[in-house]
Amino acid sequence: QLQLVESGGGLVQPGGSLVLSCAASEFSLKHYAIGWFRQAPGKEREAVSCISVGNGPTYYGGSVKGRFATSRDNAERTVFLQMNSLKPDDTAVYYCAAEWDYTCSDDVMSSDFGSWGQGTQVTVSS
Hints:
Blueprint: E1 4-7, E2 10-12, E3 18-24, E4 32-39, E5 46-51, E6 58-60, E7 68-72, E8 78-83, E9 92-100, E10 115-116, E11 120-124
Parallel strand pairs: 2-11
Antiparallel strand pairs: 1-3, 3-8, 4-5, 4-9, 5-6, 7-8, 9-10, 9-11
């Protein structure tokens, strides 16, 4: 069972930046697509980004496109979510999720992913 651990959340002022990390405890993420999702209180879980295996496509949700970027480290053990120009509406618990040999698309859904991290809180406030 793939276990994922997110880190990097915290409190940031509007306009600031954060980098979230998603790491697997014992396995390489090379053959896993990694999705980032977020859920704010009283709202449904929302797909933020998705990075495919290899040179496959990368997806970004409309509300974060141009501000967020996801990438893998060279060792393929960690996936990052760089979040810039943060807004109060970005406040949520952020989760990373993994799925073997999955190709990301505009139809990405949380139900497509079988392994999840515990989540990390991101709060954007002055």
